[in-house]
Amino acid sequence: MLSLLSHLSQYWMDGAVRTLEGVRRGLSEPFPLSEDPPSTTPYEVVYEGGKVRLRHYRAVGEPHTTPLLVVYSLIKRPFILDLQPGRSVVETLTKQGVEVYFIDWIPPLRTDSWRGFDAYVNGDLAKAVRAVQIREGVEQVSLLGYCFGGLLTTIYTALCPETVKNLITFTLPLDMSVRDLAMNAVIDKFRLETIDLITAIYGNCPAWFIKAGFDAMSPVHHALDKYVGLYRNKDKEGYAEMFELFEQWMNSDVPLAGQIFREMTEELFRKNLLIQDRFQVGGQPVNLRNITCSVLNVIGEHDDVVHPKSSLPLIELVGSSDARNFVFPTGHIGAAVSAAAQKKLWPQVGAWLKERDGKRAH
């Protein structure tokens, strides 16, 4: 028991240090990033522009005709999708013949606080798609968006449907009227004056503020359960290493540009404009019925970050005749890193892509 308490005490002290470091980094310019762990899957950077650094992971064996562009979330580093051999979404997909391109978002500076959905979708994402089209010699790409990245890919596909052959959304926060999770209750308390104050001080929404919101959703897990799990499994082969990588990712938060923070909070979370076809990006209405490509909506049945009920309505709102929900028995992070997901979920995603590689839904 004393040994367990000693472990917990050390980790709590480390957590306090990380919190103070997060505040310091939030005030720093430019934003300093800790170094990512070595990549599990080899890649090369093939394009950089705006806030995009585009990676290319080569397919193993005979590649699919249509490349896949993975659009990661804006608020953490992306190595959770390439964490370890055997626990890597990227590795699993490339081994199935998928040419994977991957957006590694560059954290915004204070001078980037003007950046909203227009800059990220019509600017950065559109240019990344164009870079893949040119490099691969194709007219259409497949898109896979993770969490916030799922929002970006959904909006992009509605605005530029002619460039997308297949859309995969992965733990997508869509219907913001769902109030089953603590994060929604936190955002409900936000006043416009609070957003004004945060962006006036920092320019952007600071990384530590975002992390505090996620920690608030599951305080017992973050404060105690995971360390008890580490102690109990410390002798299991590979467990401690994976735990450290996971902890590094959990503390890899980056700022969110001030304008997209404002738009996300006010227009999507509070007013829920996207599913009402009332959301506009760059003055252009986002109509989900414009999404006519094949759609696979991957949902974590036990997701404690994005409630399944928030994701489920997508297939009823798009205009595709080939749209389905794929509910998998896992949580938000387990869908990316669990052994079960690598053995069962992502092989099925790869098979879904292969099946549609030579045809288009209408």
CATH H-level superfamily? Alpha/Beta hydrolase fold, catalytic domain
Structural class: alpha/beta
Compute the average pLDDT.
85
Just give the CATH class: Alpha Beta
Strand content: 5-15%
| Domain tally | 1
Distance between the termini: 62 Å
Number of helices: 14
The helix fraction, in percent, is 40-55%
Order of helices and strands: HEEEHEHEHEHHHHHHEEEHHEHH
Q: Tell me the CATH architecture.
A: 3-Layer(aba) Sandwich
Gross morphology:
globular
Description:
The chain is an alpha/beta fold and 362 residues long. The chain has one domain: 3-Layer(aba) Sandwich (Rossmann fold). 44% of the residues lie in helices and 14% in strands. It has an 8-stranded mixed sheet with strand order 1-2-4-3-5-6-9-10, with helices on both faces. A two-stranded antiparallel sheet has the order 7-8. The relative contact order is 0.15.
Topology summary:
Blueprint: H1 2-26, E1 44-49, E2 52-57, E3 68-71, H2 89-94, E4 100-105, H3 117-136, E5 141-146, H4 148-159, E6 164-170, H5 182-188, H6 192-202, H7 207-217, H8 219-232, H9 239-250, H10 258-270, E7 280-281, E8 284-285, E9 294-300, H11 308-311, H12 314-317, E10 323-328, H13 334-337, H14 339-355
Parallel strand pairs: 3-4, 3-5, 5-6, 6-9, 9-10
Antiparallel strand pairs: 1-2, 2-4, 7-8
Helix pairs in contact: 1-8, 3-4, 6-10
Keywords:
single chain; 362 residues; alpha/beta; Rossmann fold; eight-stranded mixed β-sheet; two-stranded antiparallel sheet; 10 strands; 44% helix; 14% strand; globular; disordered N terminus
